[in-house]
Amino acid sequence: MSGVNSELILQRLQERFGEAVLGSETPYGLLTVEVTPESAHGIIQWLREDGELSINFLTLLGAVHYPENKGRELAIVYHLQSMVNNIRLRLKAYVSIETPVIKSITDIYIGANWQERETFDFFGVQFEGHPNLVRILNEDSMDYFPMRKEYHLEDATREDKDDRFFGR
Amino acid sequence: MGKVEVINDAETFNGEGFQLTMLDKVIGAARANSVWPLPFATSCCGIEYMATMGTNYDVARFGMERMSFSPRQADLLIVAGTISKKLAPILKQVYEQMAEPKWVISVGACASSGGIFDTYSVLQGIDRVIPVDVYVPGCPPRPEQIIEGFMNIHRLVKNESLRRRYSDEYKHLLNKYNLNEE
Q1: Is residue B18 part of a domain?
Q2: CA A56 to CA A85: how far, in whole Å?
Q3: Has residue B6 been placed in a domain?
Q4: Domain-located, residue B182
Q5: Most Cβ neighbours (<10 Å): which of A22, A125, B109, B177?
Q6: What residue numbers bound the domain in which B67 lies?
Q7: A-chain residues near B112 (CB < 8 A)
Q8: Which residues in B lie closer than 8 A to residue A155 (C-beta atoms)?
């Protein structure tokens, strides 16, 4: 086993990026680093190219909506893995719901194309530089982003779920 | 060889050297005993429908063994399973491509009402995009239930007037769904 562990990754990140690293925690043993949205692209690129850390695989990209976090409602989450060192890392970048803009990482990981489109489809995150940022799973005529918590999960047009019929 | 059963769907009046009956009844009986289904199966109801097609339940007894995977040669559209809103226009297009006379059976809770999928992405019943003749409840319905749905379709087919498809009521029904009359 190589000597790369969560402490080393965090230390290297703080040395290299300083102010851009906003905080960190290790829930369930998984290093989670919060970074600024402007720096996320550069950090992911550096992690991939760094010879020692060699965090070179994008496992997952997605978003979470926290309506109570004013000004930083949408968290864009990157799960990264080092195939060489067998270690995982989670990066989080928060953006506001008014300007949910972050740089696309399709130039680093081509596999992010599908996932960024999906994240746009459900959360409305604008990935700058994505080659084809249009809806992928939902119908094209949909005019909102359904996974944002301001919308009801239920279909608004359904009529038979009247509580009076169920004694509620 | 099993016993051959003569179907007596059309009442006749028999005399010396002639036999009288009604064209509606003869054509109805012919149609009802050769309904060619188009399975539009998307989920577990489709699996139950596949069991219905198999030898245990054997839809061939009703002249339905010829699955038409082209809408152009189909009489009965069997919608079995959850239809998402993204799929709805495709379902409608399939229905439009079928030649008259055509019937629709909605198999299972999802196709009939959206079922448990009361959510933004699922069509809350196919009757929001196409007219439905018979609803089969169940989640999923057993093959026996699907066959009972077929029996009801047969009843409709047998008793349908030859003029029904030209009636104002029928045109009104299609207009309600924005289905174009040619």
Answers
A1: no
A2: 10
A3: no
A4: no
A5: A125
A6: 31-176
A7: none
A8: 114, 118-120, 122, 124
B120 Cβ under 8 Å from any chain A Cβ: yes
- Domain count for chain B, please give it: 1
In chain A, which residue's Cα lies nearest the Cα of B118?
Answer: A154
As a whole number of angstroms, the distance between CA A119 and CA B66 comes to 44
Helix or strand holding residue A102 (H, E) = strand A101-103
Cα(A64)–Cα(A95) distance, integer angstroms: 11
For residue B1, pLDDT beyond 70: no
Q: Is B99 exposed, middle or buried (0-12, 13-18, 19+ CB in 10 A)?
A: exposed
Q: What is the pTM of this model?
A: 0.83
Beta pairing partners, B19: B14
Contact B122/A157, CB-based, under 8 Å? no
Q: Domains of chain A: which residue ranges?
A: 6-155
pLDDT at B97 over 90: yes
> Hey, are the CB atoms on A153 and B86 less than 8 Å from each other?
no
Q: According to CATH, what is the number of the domain A6-155?
A: 3.30.460.80
- Which tens digit of pLDDT belongs to each residue from B138-161? 999 999 999 999 999 999 999 888
B122 and chain A in contact, CB less than 8 A:
yes
Taking an 8 Å cut-off on Cβ atoms, the answer to whether A155 and B86 are in contact is: no
pLDDT digits (tens, 9 = 90+) for B18-44: 888 888 888 988 999 999 999 999 999
pLDDT, one tens digit per residue, over A132-150 is 999 999 988 888 899 999 8
The first and second tokens of residue B166, run together, are 């030209």
CATH assignment of the domain containing B79: 3.40.50.12280
Per-residue pLDDT tens over the stretch B42-53: 999 999 999 999
